[in-house]
Amino acid sequence: MFLKRAFDICFALIAIMFLLPLFLIITLLVCMGSRGGALYVQRRVGRDGVDFDLYKFRTMYTNADRGGLLTIGCHDYRITPAGYWLRKYKLDELPQLFNILLGDMSFVGPRPEVRKYVELYTLHQQRVLSVKPGITDRASIRYFDENDILAKADDPEKLYVSEIIPSKIQYNLDYIDNQSLWLDIIIIWQTIKRIVSDKPATF
Q1: b or e along 91-118 (b: 16 or more beta carbons within 10 Å of the residue's beta carbon)?
Q2: What pLDDT digit, counting tens, does each position of 127-169 carry?
């Protein structure tokens, strides 16, 4: 675990310094494109069930999350023009590098959920809360187009709760049982490949 934390801190610092110009550009685009600040902060459930503030670049109009927690497709009317591209290339997740430095998250680990959905976990599924949440994981790669999948559903939330969440958790439980620094590096590389490629991931 020490190696994983050392890896997270070192590469988060390197990434922040390297991406600082991009951070500034995105901040300007977000603020110029719609009213509100550049950052969006949402309470998520972290390790051991403890809530924390997750940081993202704002991709929706201010207070748009009152219309529901799930985003239905990249063309959801609540998403700003700049937000579409940020979501498409996962650039909205970059501020979570600061979550890593704060110790709330890791590069690789189960994506943190909101309390509403965590309360639906079975006792077996709650084991995903035994590790730090991450910016990416195999479930995120598998469901890279999750918003578009939900957009095609008659009842998006029912599909999310009954099918997508259990599937994601199974991927994450498999990760917990086999986690290693080398596996983290593989998942990070697979994530980068998925972002720059139109091909779906296979496992």
Answers
A1: bbbbbbbebbeeebbbbbbbbbbeeeeb
A2: 999 999 999 999 999 999 888 888 888 888 899 999 999 999 9
